[in-house]
């Protein structure tokens, strides 16, 4: 009896409710969507990292850091970073174009079809319209009452 209860408790731990499954599916879809959109926001990430570190960049890396009236404020480094990112993207595109090989394969399938004579079928006509009707029914068909 204790083994059955233990097995049921373990089984219930691994069961997920419908709302939990729905939430996990939603999170998975959102995660995959974000992963597809990340490469298109590359320049945004470069700009955001520049803005977060702009003071440090303007004091340490900037070419005009020793000038008294520095109007650059590290923008020269931002331009270099953006150019480097764009060049990297072009290089990656060129690598993908070089690696893409299109292979066309044509297979010829030889089928030997045999001609057969069509099967003639004649439909049997149960009502002949050559003669006049023998009798006319004035009553309408009513199904048995136990079907209703």
Question: Features of this protein?
Answer:
148 residues, transmembrane helix, single chain, 51% helix, mainly alpha, 0% strand
Structural account:
Keywords: Membrane, Transmembrane, Transmembrane helix. The chain crosses the membrane at residues 27-50. This protein has 148 residues and is mainly α. It has a domain at 7-101. Helices cover 51% and strands 0% of the residues. It is built from 5 helices and no strands. Helix 3 (42-52) packs antiparallel against helix 5. The protein is elongated and about 120 Å long. It starts with a helix and ends in a 49-residue tail after the last helix.
Structural topology:
Layout: H1 2-14, H2 18-37, H3 42-52, H4 54-60, H5 75-99
Helix pairs in contact: 3-5
User: What is the arithmetic mean of pLDDT?
Assistant: 76
Q: Which structural class fits the helix and strand makeup?
A: mainly alpha
The unreliable regions are none
Main β-sheet description: none
Quick summary of this structure?
Keywords: Membrane, Transmembrane, Transmembrane helix. With 148 residues, the protein is mainly α.
């Amino acid at each position: 009896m204790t083994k059955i209860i233990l097995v049921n408790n373990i089984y219930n731990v691994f069961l997920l409710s419908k709302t939990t499954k729905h939430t996990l599916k939603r999170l998975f879809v959102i995660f995959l969507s974000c992963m597809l959109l990340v490469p298109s926001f590359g320049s945004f990430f470069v700009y955001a990292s520049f803005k977060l570190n702009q003071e440090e960049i303007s004091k340490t890396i900037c070419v005009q850091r020793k000038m008294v009236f520095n109007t650059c404020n590290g923008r020269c480094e931002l331009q270099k970073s953006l150019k480097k990112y764009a060049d990297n993207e072009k290089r990656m595109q060129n690598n993908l174009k070089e690696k893409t090989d299109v292979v066309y394969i044509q297979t010829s399938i030889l089928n030997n079809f045999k001609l057969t004579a069509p099967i003639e079928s004649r439909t049997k006509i149960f009502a002949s319209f050559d003669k006049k009707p023998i009798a006319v029914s004035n009553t309408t068909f009513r199904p048995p009452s136990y079907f209703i």
